[in-house]
Fold this sequence. Notes:
Blueprint: E1 8-12, H1 16-27, E2 31-35, E3 51-52, H2 63-79, E4 85-86, E5 90-92, E6 111-114, H3 115-121, E7 131-135, E8 139-141, H4 143-156, E9 160-162, E10 167-172, E11 177-182, E12 185-188, E13 191-194, H5 200-205, E14 213-224, E15 233-235, E16 240-243, E17 249-254, H6 264-278, E18 286-298, E19 304-307, E20 314-318, H7 322-339
Parallel strand pairs: 1-2, 1-13, 2-9, 5-15, 13-20
Antiparallel strand pairs: 3-8, 4-8, 5-7, 6-7, 10-11, 11-12, 14-17, 14-18, 15-16, 16-17, 19-20
Helix pairs in contact: 1-4, 1-7, 2-7
Amino acid sequence: MGNAVNKRVVVIGAGIVGASLAYHLAGKGAQVILVEAEDVASGVTGHSFAWINTSHSGPDPIVSLRGAAIQEYRRLETELPGLKVRWSGALSYGASPSEEPQASGNPPSATRVSRSQILDLEPNLKHPPQQAWYAAEEGALDAVQATHALLAGAQAHGAQLLTQTRVLGFTTQDARVTGVETTGGSLEADIVVLAAGTGITQLTAQLNLPLPIAASPALFIRYASPPDLVRTIISSPEMEVRQGTNGSLLAAEDYLDDAVQNQPAAIALRTAQAIRNQLHGVTSIELESACVGLRPMPVDGTPIIGYLPDIGGVYVCAMHPGVTLAAIVGRLAGEEIIDGTASPALAPCRPGRFFQA
C-alpha cells in the first residue's frame, strides 16, 4: 500500500467523526477523499446536544477512551483556531448524594458541591438541591461548527470533500476492497473508512458483514431565550440544558414514541415549561427547532472501531457518544491506519467480536 504520503483513503460520512478522521489522516500525509451522501453534518451531528463528558454508569470497557476525550479536544483547539469549545463545567444532580460519582454516572473527577456552591455556579436555579456533582473540566461545542473546522483543517492538508455523493457499492479484488462506487464515479482506495453513523449497517451488509448498529433516537431542542440563563451544563431529572454560543438555550430529551403527545414539538413545549419552573429570568422562551437525531448505537453499547474481518481494506468507526469520542478516535484510528500502530484503548471495540464462531 505504500507509505503514508501516497496512501489513498476514502472516508464515508461527513459528520464530526468522519471529519475528525479526515483531519487526522490528512495530517499524517494520506490522500483523503471524504464522501457524504447529503451535506456536511446533516445526520446526527447536526442534532446533537454536544456535551463533551466522561460520564458513564456501570462497567465501561472504553473508560480509557472517555478519559482521554477532553485532553484531545484541548489539543485540537490549539491546532484549529476555528474549533471552539465552551468549557463551562457540568452540574449534575438527581442521584443519591451518598453515591460516589462513578456510581451515579458522573466522571470520577466530579466533586460534590453544596447548595450554596450550586447557586454560585447557577444563580438562576429556583430549586437548587442540597448537593450536586460538578465536573469543572467538561464542556460543549457547536457540533456543526466543529465539523466544519475539522474539515477546513483536513482540506488545508490536501483532503477533498465530495457532498451530495452517495455510495453505491465497493470494488473488490482478492478479498480486499480496492475502491468505492459513487453517484459521482469510481474512487480508488487503499483503505475505506466507514464513518456514516447509522448508515454503516447497510454499507457493511453490501460486503456480507452486516454490523448490528441500532438507530437510537434522541431529541435536540433549541430555544430563543434571554442570554446567560445557564452558565454550566445542567443535567437533572427535570431538564438537560446548556446555553449555546449564540445565546440560544439548548436542551436534550429522550425520544418516547410516535404518539401525537410525544411528537418533538409537543415534548419541546413541555420541556420549555419545565425550564420556566426551574429557572429564574425566563421572561420569554420561544421554540426555534426540535429535531430527532438517530444515534448509531452498537447493539452491545461499545463502539465499533477497527478493520472488518475476512476482507481487507475496510476500517469501521461507529460509536455513541460520537461527539465526545470524535477527537480521540480520530487520532488513534489515524495512527492505526497510517502507522500500523494498534491502540490498546481500541482493543474492546473491534468489529471482529460480532463474527466469532
